[in-house]
Amino acid sequence: MLTRGHLLHSAAREFGHQGYAGASLQEVSRSAGVSMGALTFHFPTKNALATAVIEVGNAEARQVVDHAAEPDTDPLAAVARLTRDLVELLSRSPMVRAAARLENERGGPDGGWGVLWEATVGRILERARQRQELNSAIEPETVVQLTTHLLYGAAVILRSRPGGDEADTLARIWNAVLQGTRAPAANVS
Known about the structure:
This protein is mostly helical. It has a domain at 54-181: Tetracycline Repressor, domain 2 (Orthogonal Bundle). It is 74% helix and 0% strand. It is built from 9 helices and no strands. It starts with a helix and ends in an 8-residue tail after the last helix. This is Transcriptional regulator, TetR family.
């Protein structure tokens, strides 16, 4: 198991930097400190290795999404927090960055990385609409699309600057956005 773990972490770094097409299995084996024979024993093909990286990275991201799906007193803040938490995860986890990149490049049958969180964001926003906390002029789907653009954009930025503090930037963006997405407070006389 130790060799498999080293291979997955080395592969995540390689796929994260080079993408699927540019990734080298020789570099993965060298970086993991194992022979090509050991690599192909655990992962017979590049595709099998990439699939394993996606599975591990998606499992990490799913934990963040599942936590956000819990009922919250403020659904709009929950959407902002979920996107910030996912960006923090992208920032600190080479496995999640690689999984996001691989899914986007390979165009998987499930629709890529967004499948992990788009439905959850939609459900949270629907809860906001039901509570009349979402501005009636804004469709939940529009905010889902905004979230998609923010997260995919952050993933691209973090590819070139993995140590960047995109979570703080995202928090500032959401602070501005939430001002326009919240329903106006009822006038109380």
